């Protein structure tokens, strides 16, 4: 069969980043979904090119954006995040059967926008004299996807609502950094990404609350339990509260987030001896 969910899986398996992005942007969302069908997981998820080399985040070099290589490395890091975001949305669209049709359409729409983001950033990187794969990158986003692939609630809570939502906080300072070197094109791309990512995180919030209601769970306490159970990364402020509100985070969630960050800031340093 060639349903939209089958197409999402095939695109997820595609190793060439350009082909993956183009194919995702070309998805016709008027096709058949087959929402109830459970698809077997093949080997090779996600499809990856031979480069970039994936390393632990601590192994990535810190470069100044004021030199050409450092500038390109920053754009490359952003492109890598967006390529992962395509995979994450496609994975949600094929992996979890039995959800309402709207669930799959939402994530396929997200995938198409993430593919546009990757394409914009890759083209900008090429204009700087580099290409995707030139620098090392890390695999943290997909590692959390692997951890949560057996639990849709955990996946929604800890990938779009946690790891991808960090982009809402990071976007303004990164844009400001690019403007210090007069990278107007890069700054404009970040404006597009922030606008769209607010919508993507809103989709995560929407389906997280749907699943919590369906399972009779409290969203706030359940999130804390999932973050602990799956060793989610500790979020660091400052937080883009305006963007997070626009993405559908509720005031009690934002308060808890701010309190946790403040308590960490005020805590005395840990003594090892």
Would you write up a description of this structure?
This protein is an all-alpha fold and 273 residues long. The protein has one domain (4-265): Ferritin. It contains 11 helices and no strands. The longest helix is centred in the last third of the chain and has 32 residues, at 184-215. The chain is globular, with a radius of gyration of 19 Å. The N and C termini lie far apart (62 Å). Mean pLDDT is 94; it is low at 266-273.
Stretches where pLDDT is under 50 for at least 5 consecutive residues are 266-273
Element order, helices and strands? HHHHHHHHHHH
Largest beta-sheet characterization: none
Work out the count of structural domains: 1
- What fraction of the residues are assigned to beta strands by DSSP? under 5%
Q: Pairing-aware structural class of the strands and helices?
A: mainly alpha
The residue fraction in helices comes out at 55-70%
Radius of gyration: 19 Å
Number of helices: 11
State the end-to-end CA separation. Answer: 62 Å
Summarize the structure.
This protein is mainly alpha-helical and 273 residues long. It has one domain: Ferritin, CATH 1.20.1260. The chain has 11 helices and no strands.
Key terms for this structure?
mainly alpha, Ferritin, disordered C terminus
Secondary structure topology:
Blueprint: H1 4-13, H2 17-25, H3 68-95, H4 101-127, H5 140-147, H6 152-163, H7 166-180, H8 184-215, H9 219-229, H10 241-246, H11 251-266
